Each structure stands twice: as C-alpha cells, then as structure tokens.
Amino acid sequence: SPTKDDRFVLAVGGQFLIALAVEQKLLPSSVVNEVAADKAEMIEAQQGYAPGRKQLRELRERVAEELLPRAFTKRRTTHVWIDPQAGWFCVDAASPAKAEEVIEHLRGTLDDFPLHMLHTQLSPASAMADWLAGGEAPAGFTIDRDCELKAVGEDKAAVRYVRHPLEGTEIKAHLASGKLPTRLALTWDDRISFILGEKLEIKRLAFLDLLKEAAEQ
C-alpha cells in the first residue's frame, strides 16, 4: 500500500499513487559455505571419505534452504504517480532499472498497458546549454548554482560546479569548447527546486518554504 493501510491505490483528484514493494532475503554465500563445510566434515567422519563434488553441491543447496527462513529480510518500496487524464506515468526511482522493474510487473498484471518513453523535440542537454548560454531558463523557472558539463569527445572531460554562480563567462567558455550540460539545478516558481539530468530525469527534488507554508494553510 502506498499509504501503509489497506488501500493499494491512493486516488486523489483523478490522480493515482501506487507502490511496488520488494522483499529480499539476505543470505551471504560465505555463511552457507561455512555451515556446509561443517556438515561435510561430519559426513566425512561418518562415511570415512570426503563428499564428492555433486554431494557438496547438494549439501550447499540444502543448507541454503534450511537457513533461508532465518535470514534477514531487506525491503524496498518504489512509488509511482499516475495521471491518466494527462497521460503521465512517473516512477520515483534513482535508476532506469528500478523503473523498468515496476513497468514489467504492471505489464504482467494488466491486460492493456500502453506506455511510451517521453521524447522531446530538443534534447535535454541541448536545451540546458541554450539556457546557460542565454543566462535564462524558460518562463517560470530559474537557474540555480549547481551544474555539470561534459565533453562529447572520447576523453569525456568534465567540470562540475557546486553552489557556484553560473552566469559568468567561464560557463560560456566551456559551452563554446563543446561541453554539454548533463546536470543543471533549477527552481520552479520559487516553490520546488530540483536537478534536471541529460535523460530528463528529475533528482534532488525539494519543496521550498513558499510551498510548505501554502500546504500548512
């Protein structure tokens, strides 16, 4: 449940929030091998000779099955926001692999799941380069003080700015030399700040005081 109760879908104003939970048993192979080695010594003492390769493999499998119920459980949850009216499907995941995991589970669950990756007329890197070169973001957005630029050549030379002004000639010189932005900090409407990536991913999302105060009211 995305809300930690008995609801598997949270619906608010035509928007849906769902979650995929994955539990993983943590059973290190070193622990299995150690227990299996002890049992192998006992078997050798009983039968007078060391267990063979096949017997050892079966012994390790049996030990793993015995230890699994007592293993620690690691749980992770991936949230998904769905806007069916506007056609948005957004996964709160740090990597494409985690997002694809959610999508594959839904594809196996639903009869019809028409999902397509978002494609823009201009690549995010080119758009961010235009914004930095002109010193201005699109309407409603402002450029913040974090940025990463990388060369497109084989050397992959990179430069990163953290809490640094981005309106100077230094940034324009990097752009002129062929480097393209791969990450850029932006703020929308003085309410939400985030890092925009070269693949259109949004990271380090933070709600600012103006939005928090409005939510409290």
Note down, in words, how this protein is organized.
There is one protein chain. By secondary structure, the protein is α+β, with helices and mostly antiparallel strands. The protein has helices spanning 29-47, 53-67, 96-109, 124-134, 169-176, 209-216, and strands spanning 10-12, 15-26, 72-83, 88-91, 141-151, 158-161, 179-188, 192-197, 202-207. The strands form two sheets. The chain has a five-stranded antiparallel beta sheet. Strands 1-2-3-4 form a four-stranded antiparallel beta sheet, with helices on one face. The chain is elongated, with a radius of gyration of 26 Å. The mean pLDDT is 90.
Give the strand tally. 9
Largest sheet: 5 strands, antiparallel
How are the strands of the largest sheet arranged?
6-5-7-8-9
**Helix-strand string:** EEHHEEHHEEHEEEH
Percent helix range: 25-40%
Low-confidence stretches: none
Distance between the termini: 27 Å
What Rg do the Cα atoms give?
26 Å
Overall average residue pLDDT: 90
Helix run count: 6
Strand content: 25-35%
Judged by helices, strands and strand pairing, the structural class is alpha+beta
Judging from the principal axes of the Cα atoms, what is the shape? elongated
